[in-house]
Amino acid sequence: MTNFLQKYGWSSNPFTLVINPKHFTGYEDQIKALKDHIENRHKIAILLGPTGSGKTMTLRWLEDNLRENVLYISKPPKSAEQFIDIFIDLLPLTFWQKIFNKRPSLYTLPKYINTKLKGNQLIFLLDEAHETSKDVLEWLRVLVDQIDNVSLIMAGMPMLEQKLKTDLETLDQRVTTRIRLTNLNQAETFDLIMKRIASVGGEGIKPFTEAAIEKIYHKTGGFPRQILKECDKLISLGKDIIDASDIDEFREFSQPNVRLDQPIVSFSPKPPSEDQLNSLPYKQRKILEILSKRDWLSPSAIAQELDMSKYGSRGHAVRSVNNILRRLMLEGYVLREAKGKAFVYTLTPKIKTYFVEQ
Ligand SMILES: Nc1ncnc2c1ncn2[C@@H]1O[C@H](COP(=O)(O)OP(=O)(O)OP(=O)(O)O)[C@@H](O)[C@H]1O
Ligand SMILES: [Mg+2]
Question: Where are the domains of the chain?
Answer without folding.
Answer: 3-14+184-246, 27-183, 274-347
